[in-house]
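Worked example 3. Consider a protein that binds fe (ii) ion.
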Amino acid sequence: MTYILGLSAYYHDSAAALLLDGEIIAAAQEERFTRVRHDAAFPENSIQFCIRQAGISFSDIDHIVFYDKPLLKFERLLETHLATAPFGLPAFIKAMPVWLKEKLYLKKVLREELSTIGECDAADLPALLFSTHHQAHAASAYYASPYEKAAVLCLDGVGEWATTTAWLAEGKDLSPIWQINFPHSIGLLYSAFTYYTGFRVNSGEYKLMGLAPYGEAKYVDLILDNIVDVKQDGSFRLDMSFFNFASGLTMTSKKFHDLFGADPRKAESDIRQRDMDIAKSIQVVTEDIVLRLAKKLQLETGVENLCLAGGVALNCVANGRLLDENIFKNIWVQPAAGDAGGALGAAYLVWHQYLSNQKIISQQDHMQGALLGTQYSDSEIENVLSSAGAFYKKYESDDLLNVVSGYLNDEKVVGWFQGKMEFGPRALGSRSILGDPRSKDMQSIINIKIKSRESFRPFAPAVLVDELSEWFEMNVKSPYMLFVTHLKKDKCFNVDQDVKVQGLDKLKIIRSQVPSITHVDNTARVQSVSVESNPMFFRLLSKFYALTHCPILINTSFNVRGEPIVESPDDALACFMNTGMDVLAIGSFVLLKHDQPDTLMDKLDHRKTDEKRHVSAVELLPGELRRFAISTGVAVSLIFGWFFPWLADSKPDTEVMAISALWIIWGLLLPVTLRQIYKGWMLFGTMMGRFMTPLILSIIYFTLISPVGLIMRLLGNDPLHRKLDSSAESYYVISENIEPENLEKPF
Ligand SMILES: [Fe+2]
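Given these inputs, the predicted complex is written out as structure tokens:
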């Protein structure tokens, strides 16, 4: 039996995934446990969950693998600064401290963290392996797919150097074909427009995609003529004079703003028609690039299956276009297509490439419906509910489904917490908020009263798999909600008003029999639900169908704006009580909002305060304070008691040494009394660091990085390959083959 632990961390979406003999045992994203959205911290909680789920101890793990090569990433960072100096000082000062303190020694940092979790010596850990970023994305897409042979396309912001990669996969082999490197990135291009239209980079891309159908593609030519040079084969380069992300702290440059005639929209300000038109335009450009890339890859490989991963593969509208165009016969997208999925991909690489195991082909993919996370028993849930003082009723499973489908039919909004948590950004019927899609008001009720998010954002439908093609222009399963498609014409109404209505007013039009899941262009991001993909959710949909003749439910993630999806019964109860949700169906229990006692919120608030208190109490442990007393006492004694007198040719100062000794004894005996002094010292250190670190980095930047960078460029060497070449046929770079042993190196 071989256990392989895959990790992603330190950038965004930290996660852990555990394989046993090549099959997924567990996978989870750290944000769900820490409640910090896109948490980049070491995935301690996710690892502990994986170990618990497998029923093993840490020492049973045979291989541990990290999802990218930190030293290659550092090389890219340095070369970028060489290429942009002397104009990148703020970015240099921002990026370097964390690299010099931590990321440059990632292997050591990881081993220390892992040995703490494993309660073992770092020397007893298995050798730490490192995949490349895109290799991990590609592996997560191909090895988890149902295909024996496939082309793989990875599209994201950036890994080490690669931003776009193409692969051919068969059996255990995953061979790179070509790539496009930083700074030329379709992910960063989309993020730049996300930034420009006033949304947050790395999380607002969905919003931009959702906004696109309200607009017209007025700016496509402007973008293609100025900002991005796209070749016939889909390869592209960005004109970097329009962007600031390589050398600055923002995504777009003044030249970009001048091109569009305005500064970026301020977050939370009114969304204008021009923002919608820009959203539509960049969506069209993105789709065009993705389609061209896919065509090129299909022609090159001649295979009929395509696997997709990387953050851009979460652009469900582009995925839907790919399906419609029939470039490949079959398409499979890794549901955890972002960096969390890299943890899984890296683990797969160890099993199939490093350990040379063949891929097992089956009808289903290997993701188990993406239900790979935590699960809570009825007794655990009841403990939480009763200790919080909640009022609830317990039901047998069939009765629970009857009751919940009845509430849904009555237009109640239901929090649905059942079975294993999903891996990946989508809620797929385990940690979901559900509603009746036939209701014309449900979209604005859930958007505004429950999720506190922008009114324009659409909701996705979950539909019984057998009814999929009856309601949608889709003939293939979509279990992971990763494709946007059109509603069938006979389910839509003739909407003449569309001609007159502009912008967000389009929301007011009733477009179909299921208006709450019908976007303004009559599309929907569909999840097909089968008994295999999520049995309990399938049964609920079946009950709702039997009751209403509608085989569809609104399915949106169980969270509010700015928070990760709920992980535990505690999270679910708090989210239920803090929002306008009417019903919570959690395990075998059903809670109604109007039944809950007023004291319940107070108890939940108290718990939060207690947790915070606990955190601040452990902030300064006595051991830490004792070390502070010893180190400062010894330092003062050596510097002022011995060194300075020695410089002055005097005897050691015994008074200073005695005071230092008393200070150390005080610290050892009464460490807690030093807390305030320690805090003051730390504050002083932080302020000094804030001043000194930028100063030292500025000196390095202007005396070393800038001159070397300028000389390199004078000699015609640009590591970023920024020159646009209108006569070139293609911007691809042929990828180098990656040997399995390469996993042993962090570079
Ligand atoms: Fe990535």
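Take a moment to read the result before moving on. The longest helix spans residues 675-714. Residues 612-618 have pLDDT under 50 and may be disordered.
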